[in-house]
User: What shape does this take?
Amino acid sequence: MAVQQAGLGKITLKNHRVVSLGGVIQLACGRTHEVMGDAADMFAIATAMHMVGPVLWIGCHNHVRSLAPTGLQDFLSPARIITTSCISRQEVLWAAEQSLRMLKNGCVVTALDDGPNLTESRRLQIAAEEGNALGIILIAKRAQTSAAQTRWVCDALPDQEIAWVWRLTKDKGGQVGTWKVGWRAYNGENKDGPNLIFMAATAAA
Amino acid sequence: MGRILSLWLPQLPLDRRIRLGDPCTNGPFAIIVENKNAWRIAHLTPAARQAGVSEGLSLPDARAICPDLLTAPADPMREGSLLRALWRWADCLSPRVAFDPPDGLLLDIAGCAHLFGGEKEMGTHTREQLADMQIQSRIGIADTKGGARALARFSDTPVAIAAPGETSQKLKTLPINALDVHDTIVRGLAQSGLKTIGQLYAIKSGELARRFGLTLTKSLSGSLGHEPDPVTPAAADPIYAARMTLPEPIGYKSDIEGVLKRLSDSICNRFVKDQKGARRFTLTVRCVDTGDHLLSVGFARPCAEPQLILQQFSRPLDELKIEFGADWFRLVAEHIEPMQPRQLALGKVADEKDSTAHLISTLGNRLGFDHVRKFAAQNAHLPEQEFKTLEILDEKYEPIWKACPRKRPIRLYPTPEYLRALKPGRPPVAFEWRRKKYATQSVQGPERLTSEWHYDGDKRTRDYWKVQTSNGPRLWLLTYPGETPPHWFVAGIFP
Assistant: This one.
């Protein structure tokens, strides 16, 4: 079976870096990616884990306050994380735009209730392009038509100890698909291998 | 030969309280200091003195003598700033003023006294001025620093003057304490029968030095003018500020930015020369009709670049409403810190650090610097106590993460969220949380935790269960053992 390259637009190949999440899944920098579902946090963490430098986590107060570095430490150093708590959706979007523009080559995670609309997401997209930053937008409720590069729906799987299913429901420059993802190093074994392993790639969701 | 005026403020801490209008100072009141593990009376009001309290008494003794006595501890910081204010005020007496901490000033008044009509008049004038400010003072004038200090503190008259060349004559009858030497030396001299300064004149300085050390002879010869001991005036702290007044009011944002550019250029040039930077800038815009508007911006690290200042001010300037224009501007730099010369960007790392600091300033200026935070580990075992968040600019703690030894969830709710058990069990077999129904598939636990004895929050013992639901999410359930019926909460979510 041909290895599918997800999350990678044709335009981005020329100008921007690519963050590889364990080989098969690749996310383009200088773009925003939307993530939904129960395990959306984990997708953002997995991406940040594969990057270097500061990770900016922007969201409303309640969202940011419940983030626990004692759990995050298994994936990335909590010292890299800068949290920003805002009081309104406007502030969140403003902070996200500023961060994407100014945090060169950084990772910006933005938590929103409803997804950004076309105007908002286009602004974020342009900002990300300028700063060459990777933007992850966590959507808690409902997504709207947007200019994001990809959209993922992530859920935890009950059958394994640590496993998720990541469904790519929209990709501007590639094909959609579904991946089952496991975490190998969680209990300390298998330190050398890639941390996120991809157990199966099922065709077209 | 110089002429030195020593200004002694014998009860500065008490005077500070009186000046503030503290009602306590009307009755028996004393300032206390901690000395040799005991609180002792340092300064007291006349009412307290009348009641029989005296300086040096320990606080319990003083309370026994005068049960109505009110006290307050000395506050060296505030007293220091009052002394600093007086140091600036003393400019009206002489251009050369030095500190004599903790409660005095030294003025070089050579060539100044005649402006007040003589030294005696100058002394009385100074005392009157200070009395108007409700500050008690004593003054000594002599040829030397040591002489003036001794006269101010130990002579009978409030203004004691030793005419030029008569300092040694005047000091003769003063006790040896008047020389600025250590108590052990004074005691040693007293044991040898030497009580006044005059008695020391007859003794060869070599012998004195051999027996009591060089400090005594140095202090003595300094006071008598055998050795130079000039007043070194303290320099004022530089103020980094710039001001611009315009003949006609302006109102366009681009014009105001032009003014701001010039102001910040002039401040930053001085910063670069002095290798300093400021963390905060305040711009005063005086509108012709609506008066002063204060705009301020902060920085994540000391800044001395006009470009960055302009950038951060662009938002507050946008929000500023000007109708008829502004014609007076002042930019002040605050929180000034030294800035080490930095190597110009070496590769990417320095560049990225710069961009992060710049971003933090931008976010902090709009959202507030307390909303931009970082994590720090804490040594505790309750899950919510294992870490804390700090302001990003907090530099007391190193941003190094000490790993927590236990597996913990990635989301931890500050107040655990109540769940409704549909089918009871330990933990519930089926439950509803956030309007979703979950069924338990497998469980691990319980992990029983009790708070430390000094913990202020909820002291109940807790049982934590790691639950794999058949819907997918791995939840951390919490219950308090011993409660009937048991209540269950969701404490967090595992990856």
Chain B touches chain A through 49 residues (CB under 8 Å). The mean pLDDT of chain B is 89. Chain B is about 30% helix and 30% strand.
